[in-house]
Amino acid sequence: TELTATSADGRFTDSVRVTVRPAAPRYRALLVGEHSYPFAESTERRGSENSVQALKSLLETSRFDSAAYAVTVGSDLSRAELIAEIREAFDGASEQDVSLFYITCHGSYSGGMSFLELSDGSSLSARDLERELRRIPGTVAVLIDCCGSGGAIGSASERAAFARGITGEFAGASVRGSKYKVLTSAGLDEDSFRIAFNGEAEAGAMATAFVRALCDGAQSLTPEAFRDVMEG
Questions:
Q1: Number of other CB atoms surrounding residue 79 within 10 Å
Q2: Global confidence as pTM
Q3: Which pLDDT band, with edges at 50, 70 and 90, does 21 fall under?
Q4: Which residues have C-beta within 8 Å of that of residue 154, sequence separation ≥ 6?
């Protein structure tokens, strides 16, 4: 707009053009790896730590509107701790901001719902996760890296089921407001896998197949294309 000031006697006048631009978006991420479990058959979920660190490095070295993600990392969180970390990491978000939540953990699908199995033996349903994330203004990118994670968006592995777009917690929410951009590592009836980099199933050589594919793919994309993937 243009503002014009004129003196009381009308002899002097001056104008100035004022341009108001929206605030630059902030990019923040919470990356959670559940590594240690109380299960007798599986006390160590190998690859979780490597997956989180690889994604952290990717987000911190990539540029989105000339800015990098400010990354918070969580490890072996209980249900209460996970909710507290979500609230703290994305506190003060505005409508122009992008908030990215990633978790790698054990998971399951039961009774029409995906569940995140946390390291203390507790669980968080996709419904409860969505209820927590809906508090965050702006765009919310959700990356769920666990078995049965496709139930969060109502997707089975069979191709026709994907095409039908069966409504899940996040799918229904995204239809209502397109707030969420969701990627999952498996269908609701599929396992999610980890992969070793050196042919040996050693903890230091493993990461999830989901994160490895994401990082490998990002290297072949332009910064603009990678931003589009992460935002929608």
A1: 15
A2: 0.78
A3: confident
A4: 165, 166, 167, 168, 171, 188
